[in-house]
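Researcher: Predict the fold of Phosphoenolpyruvate-protein phosphotransferase.
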Amino acid sequence: MADKILTGISVATGIAIGKAFFINRNHKAHLPRQIVAASLVPREIDKLHEAFTAVESELSATREHVPAELKDYGLLIETHILMLKDPKLSGAAADYIKTLGLNAAWALEKAVSDQEDAFGAINDPYIRERMQDVRVVADKVQAKLIGKETDLTGMSGRAIIMAHDLTPADTVELQVDKIMGFATVCGGKTSHTGIMARSLGIPALVGADRLEDSVRDGDLVVIDGLSGKIVVNPTEAELEDYNERAAFFEEYSRKIKRQCQLPAETFDGSRVQVMANIELVEEVASVIDNGGEGIGLYRTEYAYLNRTDLPDEEELAEKYIDLASVMSPRKVVFRSLDLGADKFISAYGELNETNPAMGLRAIRFCLKNPQLFKIQLRAILRASAYGNVSLMFPMISGVKEVRQAKAWLAQAKAELRREGVAYDPDMPVGIMIELPAAVMIAEYLAHEVDFFSIGTNDLIQYSIGVDRTNHHVSYLYQPLHPATLRMIKLVVDAAHQAGIEVSLCGEVASDPFCVPILLGMGIDSISLTPQAIPGIKRIIRQTNMHDCRNLLNEVLACRTVSRINNLVMENIFKYFPDEVTFFTSLLENDEAAS
Ligand code: PEP
Ligand code: MG
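Model: Structure tokens for Phosphoenolpyruvate-protein phosphotransferase follow.
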């Protein structure tokens, strides 16, 4: 048996086998706390300033080499450099060395704690983010002071990066071509670590609780981003098995990648559009490379996060026009800002809600802040003159909200028209169906818009009552729950009855077990993470609508998730014998997560 097998949440698929290299170990427990002799105080203060300067010059060097995939994170490094230059933190720490005779690392710890105490009570996301940045910067200085800084020169070749947490700045420092995979203690499905790993196309696991106690630098580790496992020092036999699995996965990925530009057409000639979900405009290359036929969901809020100011119309328009032009004539669906819940922008402060997931988020937030909303609507409209652009509103709960949102859009159009600025007057407008209320009135909503896009991530959360980020209840997060399937069917039928198209852009669209059922329902398009597109297109190309409709009828007659799961599994193994190894790994992942 391997020394240890740890479990985590897979945020990017694939298998990496290599030596572990730790950065950002949580060194707080080992922070030396000593009183220095009065005669040594000046030297200790010098040491403190030297450590600040050294970290600052390291970050300045890093800033010069931000790779294209992580360009948006360059600003964060800039912020950290400014903090190191600001004498407030180093000055407060130097005072503790002078007045109490504390060693430099301890003095800095006290200076940071003072700031956390002073600002911790203020419930403002901007201040909270800045405090986290202060902590990141101080950690680096302390690591330098106690000789525990990440010695990147120690990373001679490619390695698997292990960390308590991983900031985008850390990744940039590491030279992305040397990273074979990631594993971290912190982070969830939607954390930066996951987004970065997917952008870089390497396997990654987050939420691996026991990582720091169980893995040492140089240990041979397997990151299994298919089954959600980290195997520490595997036996010969385990290693052989993983080498085989990795080789299989690589071969499988190569095979499906070769076919990914082919249309997603079933044996019996039904076409489904397979589009991509993106968070950053930089992901476009990956969309095209993986055979994405358009962008079915652009999560525009990411361009508002990780910064202290708000983007203005010019900045947004430039970004959006670039995206629309590069993708043209392919479709790009812009989703208007889905802020709130766990995604706050500093400039608006936090709302202090007891239950933010049910609070002022998404379209509700935009309707309450029309100035912000209109700037974005104008930018999207301007982009519509350069490509095949659609717009959709998230978290719609009723007809009135749609009408209000469309009224702001009409106003933005009127302004542009008066100003002589070009836009597409017929830009399609849709809504996301992600609340049970919207499902129940889908037939009314269908008459208000040009298309629907079903957001199953939230729809499952709000219908089964399970927080999508809470691992304690993740076993309840069931895409194949009879209620979920019935709701999707209801929405698809209502859309088609009204003669509009319906797409699905939640994670369900990248689940090979669910896709045949969606086909059976007659979904017009799906939108998923770019890396999953080749596999899903292959599934579609290997199936036929007749079987999918039969499967749908069978699952709709089932009363329990387990019965549906069994049926779906039988179907997968019957129709996709080549994929059995791949699917078995995915099933292990589901079991590990529950
Ligand atoms: C969804 O809710 O399914 C969805 C696609 O939106 P997001 O994951 O951005 O909330
Ligand atoms: Mg959603």
